[in-house]
Automatic annotation (TrEMBL):
It is an enzyme of class 2 (transferase). It comes from the Bacteria. This is cysteine desulfurase. The keyword RNA-binding does not apply. Its EC number is 2.8.1.7. It catalyses: (sulfur carrier)-H + L-cysteine = (sulfur carrier)-SH + L-alanine.
Amino acid sequence: MSYIYYDHAATTPMHEDVIRAYVEAASAGPGNASSLHAQGRAARGRITAARDTLARYLCCDASELVFTSGGTESDNAALFGAALAQRSNGRIGIVTSAVEHHAVLHACKQLEKQGFKLTVLPVDDNGRVSVAEAEAAIDDTTAVVSIMAGNNETGTIQPIAAIGEWARKHKAIMHVDAVQAFGYASLELRELPIDLLSLSAHKINGPQGVGLLYARKGTSFQPLLYGGSQERKRRAGTENVAGIAAFAKAAELAVSDRELRSRHAETMRETFLTRLGDLIGSESFVVNGEGAERLPHIANVSFLGIRSENMLMNLDLAGVSASGGSACTSGSLLPSHVLQAMGLPQERVASAVRFSFGLGNNSEEAEKAAQITATIWARLRN
Ligand SMILES: Cc1ncc(COP(=O)(O)O)c(C=O)c1O
């Protein structure tokens, strides 16, 4: 069976140029970037080149970039790194939002257990944080503010620049999880009031298991991992040379083709939703978060009266890969904390399916997927 992959927010297919970059680096022979011999120096050269490329596309200094194992590690390193460093300045406040990825929320809860004072900002029914509420929560005791650029379940874009300005006024460290937004939103770090930023390669057609933490020069930060002196002592451990080389290639493609990439994802999303509306009537489903500015590649759809696991199982059997909220949430079949925080009625939370679009999708597929979804909808409704 041929599959229609509509789960790009969970992970993306690797771009063929990225695979080429990975294979080239992986087949270049052994080389630990910390070794002094020629092969070690070659590995180091690949990492340096990748870091320079990423710094160019993020508009920051190469020395401000720390390679990690992915978005989860970057989020944890940012939160623990900044909060623990700020505690010695007498700052114990952490401000985040109710719709953050669990990599942020669970790290914040852990910090709360260690004595930090946690404020979780609510969101409106489109999943958006209010700037006024963020401003009221941030003061001179705030250590870290962590607000995502774009949500992984609904695509809702947050006002990170306005919140970052306020955080800066109070000398709080501003962290942004841009794992879903990278490659769709403009992230010119020199221009943005952001101190720490998390990225992950596998969301932009790069390999799994590689990520990046941007740490603005001068930001108070304690490492999460101790050991060797890799990454200027900010992240110990032998670097994933091939993964890093491939990540840089993926970032180059994602940023230089950003507008095209965004337009493609949005066209796929709108073609699918429009066709679905033609087939089952637009009153038969709700697109959650539709009233806010959103990332172009995500559609969170509630099929009223149909449980999400039933829809997902039938879609899977028919060859359409979608998901129910974030991947880990759907694995454990818990209702989405994001949709709950948006205050949606239980019926909408229990019937939500996330379709996410990207590389490799085309209009014929969108038509076919809409027809498959409509057929399943008609069957389940009866
Ligand atoms: C917004 C967001 N943050 C963090 C992560 C975690 O990234 P990784 O899978 O690279 O650990 C994800 C992954 O789904 C995400 O969507």
